Amino acid sequence: MNINNLIEQFDLQGKVATAVPFGNGHINDTFHLCNQDAALPDYLLQRVNHLVFKPVAAMMENIRKVTEHVNEKSRGATLDLIPTQEGKDFFRDEKGNYWRVFIFRKELMAYDIAETPEQIYEGAKAFGRFLDYLADFPAAELFPTIPNFHNVITRLEAFDLALKADVKGRIKECKKEIGYVLGIAQEMCRIQHAGEAGKIPLRVTHNDTKFNNVLLDHDGKGRCVIDLDTVMPGYVHFDFGDGVRTTVSTAAEDEADLEKIAVDLDRFSAFAQGYLEVTHATLSPLEIEYLPLSAAMLAYLMGLRFLTDYLAGDVYYKIHFEQQNFQRAKAQLDLCQKILERKKDLSQVIQGLVGVKSLW
Ligand code: GN1
Ligand code: MG
Q1: Closest CA to 234 of 192, 193, 187, 282
Q2: Could you read off the pLDDT of 221-276 as tens digits, one per residue?
Q3: DSSP code, position 18
């Protein structure tokens, strides 16, 4: 089926002029559909990676419920799903690929790396509002699309299996990183343990709050939270931690020069201030106490996942060059270490904002 036949399956306004590959996602394939009539909306067509998101229909049902709930509270605060001509959430082609369409907000922009603390503050507020809008949504109604997605304990088990198999004989290159991962494993499991002990509540979380998943307008205000594939029950730390991980340094996620990776306290303060301004009334003191640790945990989790994928032979993330997963892992583990070195400073920022002392 060619792209024009595919587009015809969806209930779109106007005619599509061009379909161009779009974005930097590591998982799905995305196209920007530009409308011939500039007054009508552009669209985003995506092929869902159904090897990663196995229960596609359940995931799409999650997305429909969540977008309806959020957009009812604040129109435009998240994506708008466009149904197929038959009123379905997605279309399955003859090869078994799953396709879906959202409105493309051409007046808004995504940044892989935030340029200023103001942008970070605004983006963080949008992510915070997303959590807040969903605070009254029954988490049990959402299907756990990828179970244990941010569970450090089970991610370490998968890492252990990859180490035992060593299918590409790559362990010898990664000795230092493997040692680092194992050395701080216990500390990195603390939030998960606290959750499993019932001390931290499960909420509806986004679970992929990297900074390029919030769109800002031309005045720099955070407008629209995107990439809802992993919205499911989780701890607030997953969202706060990933937001900090992707904003606290100006370095890229796979930065090869580790000297360029730095924890910038102004950038951290901006994220924490924006996020907490909207959520602190909802969060418990214990949830707030663990926020600084969550930043290290998410950098650790990503380092761990990239390293696992490198050892397993690059089977999960898209890579653009041979060693990219290893390079990503090194950068994320370096960031984790640098966040841990600054833990007192991060805690002080949180304490200054909401008066809650952090646990380390
Ligand atoms: C993947 O969809 P995308 O590329 O934003 C991954 C996230 C990671 C991210 C790292 C389903 O997200 O968990 O944080 O890469 N998504 C999935 O950049 O694994
Ligand atoms: Mg994603």
Answers
A1: 192
A2: 999 999 999 999 999 999 999 999 999 999 999 999 999 999 999 999 999 999 99
A3: E
Residue type, 240: F
Residue 2, pLDDT score = 85
Residue 328's φ and ψ, nearest 5 degrees, are -60, -45
- pLDDT tens readout for residues 14-30: 999 999 999 988 999 99
Does the beta carbon of 25 lie inside 6 Å of ligand 1? yes
Please tell me what DSSP assigns to residue 140. Answer: G
Q: In the chain, what percentage of residues exceed pLDDT 90?
A: 96
Q: Is the pTM of this model over 0.85?
A: yes
Spell out the alpha helix ranges (H) of the chain.
Answer: 3-8, 56-73, 117-133, 152-165, 175-183, 185-188, 190-196, 236-245, 265-279, 285-289, 291-311, 324-341, 343-354
Cβ proximity of 346 and 273 under 8 Å = no
Tell me, using a 6 A CB cutoff, whether residue 88 lines ligand 1: no
Helical axes 152-165 vs 291-311, angle rounded to 10°: 20
Rounded to the nearest angstrom, the distance between the alpha carbon of 230 and the centre of ligand 2 is 7
Q: Which ligand 1 atom is at minimum distance from the Cα of 302? A: 14
Supply the residue whose CA is at minimum distance from atom 8 of ligand 1.
Answer: 208
- Residue closest by Cα to atom 19 of ligand 1: 27
309 lines ligand 1 (CB under 6 A): no
